[in-house]
Design goal:
Chain A: Belongs to the bacterial ribosomal protein bL21 family. The complex is a heterodimer of chains A (155) and B (149). Chain A has one helix and ten strands. Chain A is mostly beta strands and 155 residues long. Chain A has a four-stranded antiparallel beta sheet, with no helix packed on it. A four-stranded antiparallel beta sheet of chain A has the order 3-10-7-4, with no helix packed on it. In chain A, strand 5 and strand 6 form a beta hairpin. Chain B has a domain of 66 residues: Ribosomal protein L20, C-terminal domain (c-terminal domain of poly(a) binding protein), CATH 1.10.1900. Chain B is elongated. The termini of chain B are far apart. Classes of the chains: A mainly beta (155), B mainly alpha (149).
């Protein structure tokens, strides 16, 4: 039959790879990455952590400042549990949405608890004799990320 | 200023009014023109500066989000994906990274961003195949040729 403009759909035909072969390839890759983690062939690790309702991209020896109070004294070690992504130079582990706690360990120390600089909130309507001035001082906490560790328990 | 006689010293006393005026002028010292020196002009400028900064603090969040979206769009176009396809497929694959972090990854971790783009592309194709289905007609439908006599 002759090929017209309507024989095949206008979008490009996409074929997914064979699921059996794909499963084999995936298992190979997972095993290789596991070996790399076990032997320690990675340099600096970075992680994306969900903390204080924000997501941070952190490495070791990083300083983080949060605009709120943390119920921990200065010098306390904290373990951050909601890790979304961990990566090194050759591989990344993407969580859906979170990675397991037995896979990654992110440790941080509380360094200082201060207040922010006095921010000025002012409202003014012209010709109405209305102005309000308020000085807002937020408490802040500074954390230092000590280490990011990964363990070879991929499957 | 070196004041050489007692009457001169007495004339230059620091009253409370001086300190009240300085409280306003200290916020105007980096302005341009006479409003960094003259109190009358500085009052209005300082007031407008405070009001603009309060409003800008709310706008900053919107501006930064559009900036991140522009950057992610540019980076995903380099990998052959458009921004809506990239973000929607990432969310469908249960990867909940926000735009700030994805923009940072696109700048500083290009290999990770490439893998995220590949993940989104694969999920997109799987979605298309699932939507197209088997290519057969649904059951329970039959066609009948109608005869007019």
């Amino acid at each position: 039959v002759a090929k017209t403009s309507l024989t095949s759909p206008p979008w490009p035909e996409v074929k997914l790879p064979d699921p059996v072969e794909e499963a084999k390839y995936h298992a190979e890759v997972v095993q290789k990455v596991n070996e790399m983690i076990a032997t320690g062939q990675y340099g600096r690790l970075f992680a994306v952590v969900h903390f204080a309702s924000k997501q941070w991209k952190i490495t070791s020896e990083d300083l983080i400042m949060m605009d709120n109070v943390l119920e921990a004294e200065c010098g306390d070690r904290i373990r951050m549990e909601k890790v979304l992504l961990v990566g090194a130079d050759d591989f990344t582990l993407i969580g859906r949405p979170l990675l397991g706690k037995d896979l990654v360990r992110v440790e941080a120390t509380v360094i200082e608890k201060t207040e922010s600089w006095p921010k000025i909130n002012m409202r003014f309507w012209k010709r109405h004799n209305y102005q309000r001035k308020k000085i807002i001082v937020n408490p802040q906490t500074v954390l230092r990320i000590n280490t990011i560790e990964i363990f070879p328990c991929l499957s | 200023m070196v004041l050489l006689s007692a009457p001169r010293w007495l004339r230059s006393r620091l009253t409370d009014r001086f300190w009240r005026v300085q409280e306003v002028l200290k916020y105007a010292r980096h302005f341009r023109g006479r409003k960094n020196r003259c109190f009358k002009l500085a009052v209005g400028s300082v007031r407008r500066a405070f009001v603009k900064s309060t409003k800008a603090r709310r706008e900053k969040k919107r501006i930064l989000r559009t900036l991140w979206i522009t950057r992610i769009e540019a980076a995903s176009l380099e990998h052959g994906l458009k921004y809506p396809a990239f973000i929607s497929n990432l969310l469908k694959s249960q990867v909940e990274l926000n735009r700030k972090v994805i923009a940072d990854l696109a700048i500083y971790e290009p290999k990770t961003f490439k893998s995220l783009a590949a993940l989104a592309q694969r999920r997109r194709q799987e979605g298309f195949l699932a939507a197209l289905g088997d290519g057969k007609e649904p059951e329970g439908i039959f066609s009948r040729i109608v005869h007019h006599y």
